[in-house]
Amino acid sequence: MSARPRPGENRPESPAIDLLIRNAEWLVTLDEERRIIRDGAVAIDGAEIVAVGKSDEIAGSYHPRKIIDAGDKLVLPGLIDTHVHNSQQLGRGLADGCDIPIHLLQRLYGYEAQLLSDDAYWAATNCHLEMIRAGTTCFLDPGNYFPDEMARTLGESGLRGVIARIAFDVHTTAIGDLARHVVRETADEALARAQETIDAYHGAHDGRTRVWIGLRIPAVCSDELIRKAKQTADANGVGLVLHASEARDEVVASRVKFGMPDVERLAELGALGPNVLLIHMGWASPRELALTLRHGACVCCTPSTGFRAGMGSMEFGRFPELLELGATVALGSDSAMSSNYVDIVRQMTLASGAAKSQRLDPMVLPPETVIEMATLHGARALLWDEQIGSIETGKKADISLFDTNKPEWQPVLNPLANLVYASRGGADTVVCNGQVLMEKGVVLSIDEERALFEAKTRGRRIAERSGLLGAIQPRWPII
Ligand SMILES: [Zn+2]
């Protein structure tokens, strides 16, 4: 009889695995018990996590083909950004300093009107680059007119994501009309294209790509489109995503035209449910909050959009209450045009700080809660919680490592508080679906130099073509 192997000693029958993350200073699992494992390890084979535990227990049980040493690292489930307009990445700054009607109807549509398919591809590639560097492994893009380019980018970058072919069918609103050049489709035409996108890409790239139905703001969607969009999402077993009760102007616009705010209208049309993700929701009325809870719809809180666009989302939004009442409330970065960055750690900092400041309450939205919003709640909001959101055996290997060996992290007495309150964010190493997308700050899945070159040149050309460049110049002379 052979002697029982000691911990750390390779057993002859140890199975081979693809990747071992070991010696993690802090392994934050987000499992049922919310265990934080000191000197932790994660064994990964293919796309899946096969074991989680102490390094000395795990390391001796497998023959890994690759090892990542996570000494000095905070290891988290890959972060989930539930609102990211990939195609707006090259328009950073073009919607600055203007009121909501101009922001939506002139700046965003003005930029999009100039976007060619190659621009959309490079916008998405740069957006994925920013997300990987931020430690994001999964996102939802609420939709645009370039689903082929969005899917291609997902295939190449290695990220996990939900995309959509956007739908809307109304061109006049109570806060202004859309320009003539904006795409014009009927409800049926828009939904036929959305269905084509689901048929083409839902489940693509080893399951990393999913496709939902995306509506723009309800103010530009007819009752027929909203009703049919929910039915199409249900028939395909996918989600429906749309902006809702985003800003005061939009609440007024909906009341003037439809006699009620967005979420009440969605409820009237039978378009609320657990597969519906409501973006922003900073201006949701008490009745809208109750309807959201009653129908089990999910909410995406976007702190930086509120700050950048002066919308009061965190001041008037009721996100801590929704969380206490059991709602799913995830976080979203929005876009380079509305936010103006794509970084979910910064969203955690803003959400936590803004709620405390608004309520004069240092206990509200503690680090644990905002980290749950960026992981478990994000996974639930994207209908993906059986596979992602925590570091547990059987889940997909989506994992982000943050380097704590930096001045702003010292001393690391509470790593969760340091991540949210003290760090500058920015991951060191990112794994998605078992693939290493970034290691020690080097992005492996995207040619970063080429992507940045394309962003600089294409971004300036689009700004010039759209005529928006003059509107956003510094107030000081440039000599
Ligand atoms: Zn948006």
UniProtKB/TrEMBL annotation:
<dbReference type="InterPro" id="IPR050287">
    <property type="entry name" value="MTA/SAH_deaminase"/>
</dbReference>
<feature type="domain" description="Amidohydrolase-related">
    <location>
        <begin position="74"/>
        <end position="436"/>
    </location>
</feature>
<dbReference type="InterPro" id="IPR011059">
    <property type="entry name" value="Metal-dep_hydrolase_composite"/>
</dbReference>
<dbReference type="GO" id="GO:0016810">
    <property type="term" value="F:hydrolase activity, acting on carbon-nitrogen (but not peptide) bonds"/>
</dbReference>
<protein>
    <submittedName>
        <fullName>Amidohydrolase</fullName>
    </submittedName>
</protein>
<dbReference type="InterPro" id="IPR006680">
    <property type="entry name" value="Amidohydro-rel"/>
</dbReference>
<dbReference type="InterPro" id="IPR032466">
    <property type="entry name" value="Metal_Hydrolase"/>
</dbReference>
<comment type="similarity">
    <text>Belongs to the metallo-dependent hydrolases superfamily. ATZ/TRZ family.</text>
</comment>
<keyword id="KW-0378">Hydrolase</keyword>
<dbReference type="Pfam" id="PF01979">
    <property type="entry name" value="Amidohydro_1"/>
</dbReference>
